[in-house]
């Protein structure tokens, strides 16, 4: 098969949560000599985006998204060891998590995966993270970027609080703050003083590279 045909199958298998078949397809793709990163960018990520769109349109439920994520991760387990070394050597660290009060972490997990495939060290704080822990972790691990996620309007204020804590400690300029999630917008990012708002995982990685001036 051509690599484009493999992309389509990987895309469909994520979307249709074929978690048992997808690993074999990923292995066959590698056996053909195709690039691992391309399979992630052009197969797995689009499939997960379709699932996310279906969720927004209420065609998929949270359980469906979790199953899609499982399928994607099964393929990633096969593909990750074959990523080119230079794709994994930036020496830049990102702290990521879902802000306090929210436990929706599928989007955050996808962003985390995309960062890892592009060579970032990712400190994943998980979900329902107390605001000060983002700042504490950034300081502890020497991070350059703090990524905040939420799918709930009621917890958006905690994103602002992270920025405020950075300002209160006099270290705002040390970190780039990126935010994302269903209810988030560029106007909200501007309002709270975040450095970047991104709509999806691919854009998040692009934005991070721009902020850190990585080619």
UniProtKB/TrEMBL annotation:
All residue ranges annotated as the B12-binding domain in the record: 91-215
UniProt KW Transit peptide keyword: no
Signal sequence segment: none
One Pfam family here: B12-binding_2
SMART domains: B12-binding_2
CC annotations in GO: cytosol
Keywords: Cobalt, Metal-binding
Any one of the GO BP annotations: homocysteine metabolic process
MF-aspect GO terms: cobalamin binding; metal ion binding; methionine synthase activity
Residue ranges occupied by any B12-binding N-terminal domain in the UniProt entry: 1-91
Stored InterPro entries: Cbl-bd_cap, Cobalamin-bd, Cobalamin-bd_sf, Met_Synthase/Corrinoid, Meth_synthase_dom
Family the UniProt entry places it in: Belongs to the methylamine corrinoid protein family.
PANTHER family: METHIONINE SYNTHASE (PTHR45833)
Name of protein: Corrinoid protein
Organism: Fenollaria massiliensis
């Amino acid at each position: 098969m051509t690599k484009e045909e493999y992309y389509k199958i990987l895309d469909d298998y994520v979307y249709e949560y074929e978690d048992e078949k997808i690993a074999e397809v990923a292995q066959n793709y590698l056996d053909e000599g195709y690039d691992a990163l391309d399979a992630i960018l052009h197969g797995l990520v689009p499939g997960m985006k379709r699932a996310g769109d279906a969720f927004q349109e209420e065609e998929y439920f949270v359980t469906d998204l979790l199953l899609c994520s499982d399928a994607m991760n099964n393929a990633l387990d096969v593909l990750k060891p074959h990523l080119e070394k230079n794709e994994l050597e930036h020496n830049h660290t990102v702290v990521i998590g879902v802000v306090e009060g929210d436990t929706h972490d599928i989007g955050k997990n996808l962003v985390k995966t995309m960062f890892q495939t592009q060579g970032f060290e990712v400190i994943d704080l998980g979900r329902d993270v107390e605001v000060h822990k983002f700042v504490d972790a950034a300081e502890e691990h020497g991070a350059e970027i703090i990524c905040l996620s939420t799918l709930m309007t009621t917890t958006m204020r905690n994103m602002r609080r992270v920025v405020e804590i950075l300002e209160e400690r006099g270290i705002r300029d040390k970190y780039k703050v990126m935010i994302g999630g269903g209810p988030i917008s560029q106007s909200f990012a501007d309002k709270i003083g975040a450095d970047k708002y991104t709509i999806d995982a691919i854009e998040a990685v692009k934005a991070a590279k721009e902020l850190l001036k990585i080619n």
